Amino acid sequence: MKTPYILTIAGNDILSGGGFQADLATFSAHKLFGFLAQTCMTAATKEGFEIIPTADELFQKQLNSLKDIPFAAIKIGLLPTPQIARAVQDFVKDMPKVPLVLDPVLVFKENADQEVAQMGQELQKLFSCATLVTPNLKEAELLSGQSISNLEEMAKAARILQQMGAKSVVIKGGARLDQNQAYDLLLEEDGQEVFLHSPLLSRNNQGAGCTFASAIASGLAKNQTVSQAVHKAKDFVYQAIAHSNDYGVTQYETH
User: What pTM value is reported for the model?
Assistant: First the structure.
């Protein structure tokens, strides 16, 4: 049987714990053939984590190179500029039947509220194209305009994101709501599910969000339902965090 093709549109993590490195490793672990359109480079400097966006013309050439490949699923990660976000919008709107997982990464910088708000608006334009949107707690707050301190507020924020056009939403709460329990909430058109796990507070979870979204996309590429893909991705990420190293999560072979 032919190995399914899957695409990540994402940036690099210079320390390799997350970003497209985590995506491609996850695809490989799920026995899929991964493709990449790279949105940015990164660097660890004395001033902090620096993001260097891919030049617009070069990024567009990447997308043009991939437009005729029959992808079984697409995962979208960090989109560093409005121009790159718009190019992605144009790319995916011509693939309405391809399952798409949008991880709405918002880079948080001091005194950059306007920039974050603008990127949030661009990401919202992708909601209607996405099979599933996977914000973390902070991203869900920024995108929905709601504070989240409990499960009820998490569900409310998910409903707001759904009203913005997302078919399904999973909010990654992790252990931020309760140090003794890791919460995630999935909202689909026909109801919601809450996922509970014992948190691995002593382990490095860098890259867990990227791995979670790409594991869900991998499941969708194999014709799993959204619920099935999320369930399996939760287990996959738990093992990835359990086996993490100093730089982030590591992947293991699925069976």
Answer: 0.91
